[in-house]
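Worked example 3. Consider a protein that binds FE2/S2 (inorganic) cluster.
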Amino acid sequence: MQKIWSGTINGKKIEKSIEQSMTLLHFLRDELSLLGTKVGCESGDCGACAVIIDKKLFNSCITPAFAVAGCEITTIEGLSENGQLHPIQKALLDTGSFQCGYCMPGMCMALKCAMDAAEHNLTEEEIREAISGNLCRCGSYSLVVEAISLLQEVKKS
Amino acid sequence: MWNEFESPQSVQDALVILEKHGGNARVMGGGTDLLMQLKSKRQTVECLVSTGKIASMKEIRLEGEKLVIGGAACAMQVQKDPLVRQYVPMLAQACAKLGAPQIRNAATLAGNVVTAKPAADSAVALTASDAVLEILGPTPRSIPLIDAYAGLMQSAVDSTKEMVVAIEIPLPTGRYGSHFARIASRRAAALPILNAAAALCLDDDGNITKSRVVVGGVGPSPQRLYTLEDMLQGQRGTIDLIEQVCGASPDHVHPRDSIRSSAAARKGLLPGLLKKCLLSSFEMATKKEG
Ligand code: FES
Ligand code: FES
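Given these inputs, the predicted complex is written out as structure tokens:
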């Protein structure tokens, strides 16, 4: 059965009639054509579909769209500003973290969430914890750690 | 699958919706387990009733001699809560080990119990805390956590008509220490092979007045190892005693072979895991003044 979903996605107010049985992942991709959020396991295990909802990280594949109606949602499409890559995206690119790139939208959201929430620079342990729910089948983990460590150093100086 | 989705703002409204659907609606906490079950089409419900917008079910507060945790509090909230960390450190530790950050932001404490996984991390710590589930529905009732399991992956709570509004934990007395630990194939996002929680209360002379030893992964639900608790209770707390108790532990569990581990490996791992829990609890308790 359809119902009106309203909320904010990447800073834009959205109102749309959708099936109540829809997950947030399919709402974003199939109804709003926001294809940056990836479909992986669809069982909450890989983090490819991770998005930020009211400043917290969630896997959109196991989140019913209506559970987050009225919330503020940020997807990978909402990360860049004025056509410029977000510093996190840039750092990941510079270190060669993107292999196939499939996990990276989720990784970026997890990293942004953790960096925004912390008042200090993340330690290696904290970076690894932040992406502990994001599987990278290309094994970029240590490159991701390197990227964020470098980014934080640059920011400090 | 589910056809309708409701996010009521009060427990009362939620119960009305459940009743209206006459057994074809289901309460949803974070949905991390439930959604997978429903998506695999093994189950269909008419309506999902989310507890996510019920503010009163997210509170964590002291009430007399009890710590009351709302059923809709998520693992991340419990893990960070100062009251939980002060009074029931093992529960904060267990919540911190659950899944990954994005799972902990969604998964609720009540959900972790009602989903009835044999080795749910928070349920093991809650069992060792003597937690009691406060259930509202057609017949409001309270059940101790240890009785919350009706069988393998089966809860005693019927989520088509009732809900766990809160989980109550009696505040520990005297010199108290507790600890949770787990063994899993990797650190994040993996169900444990074994997990355990221990709690010890000491009197001023260093005698153990109360002990709890709970293990997950050796049965259909968290198991209290009563014989080991009795070996500790009433005795003077020493490292020797703890080692002796841990050494005896494999004789008191009956694990099975599963995809995660063989029964023999589980028995072999148990003494070391329990030692970690009991020694940390003991150390914490001896440091604390009564
Ligand atoms: S697609 Fe959502 S966690 Fe894998
Ligand atoms: S870069 Fe290929 S999955 Fe991570």
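Take a moment to read the result before moving on. The first helix of chain A runs from residue 24 to 31. The mean pLDDT of chain A is 96.
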